[in-house]
Amino acid sequence: MGNISSYRSGLTAKLRDYEKGLVLRHGRIVGEAHTGLNWLGLMGVLYVIDTRQQELTVPVSVSTADKMPMNFNVVVRYNASNPEEVYKGVENISQTLFSKVNDEVVSRAQQRPSYEALITDRKDLEKELLGSISGFIAPLGYVITAVEFPTLLPPGGIADRVKKVEEAKIEKIIAEKVGVVRRVEADTETDVFKKRKGAAIEMLGKEIDEITRGGAKLKEVYGDQAIDIMYLLMGENLGDSHVLTLGMAKRMEMRAVSSGAKEAAEKVQADPSFIYFLEALKAAKPLTILNASDLDERLSKMFEGKSK
Questions:
Q1: Is residue 307 part of a domain?
Q2: Across the 308 residues of the chain, what is the mean pLDDT of every consecutive 10-residue run?
Q3: Which residue in 171, 274, 273 sits closest to 230, CA to CA?
Q4: Residue ranges making up the domain that contains 63
Q5: Model-level pTM greater than 0.90?
């Protein structure tokens, strides 16, 4: 990272487009410099700041509330904006900013109850730091443009713990949906029953729509192989008993899964762009019986002519 501020002397001095400056005489500010050639006079000096974006990497070592040691980097992007405040402010902004960022990150990270919570809250923490550090550095003539945690990733076995936290959230959503269905089944054919059944089917409809969109994307990306991939994913996420209620899956029982379909299905499960599709499959599992025919009809039309 180059110097943000510098001095130029002579009768005249030039400012580039990305620079701002002040004209000084005997250490006092006598005027503001402008882009292009500036007249300084015999005793004048041009104080210059570089307004281009600067980047500072701060290595952080801290432990969360559950005593989990963490080592990661925080990247701060900033630029000088006010030459007068920079001139009157701190001499070494990078050192000042380094200390401030480290103190803020350590303090806020220690408030998180666990490593998983810190990873889950990463975006919120970035926003918190952006606001806090911006307020600190603005009076010094600088602007913070970004605060990021590019290396905040779970090491080794921690990744499994983080994954379980995310899976628990999905299971909670599924449990809530199961509760809706059970209340529907427990009611008699009354207005309350009709209302709850309608709410359950409407809730399922969102999953059906997402599964349909996912199927269309599979067809677009994988072509003829998409129907086999869909069969594998439905079998894993909905369970065999539910898959066999679908006419599309029923028609595929007698055919072998195409070569490479299992490998492709694994890629889909690891592809972030299919995350909502996969979550919809899981969420729809307890509700499939309510609207199996609707899903079957949509998928059958989508893959029509692709199965034998």
A1: no
A2: 77 89 89 89 89 92 79 91 91 91 88 78 87 92 91 58 63 64 53 52 64 80 78 63 42 54 81 76 57 60 55
A3: 274
A4: 54-148
A5: no
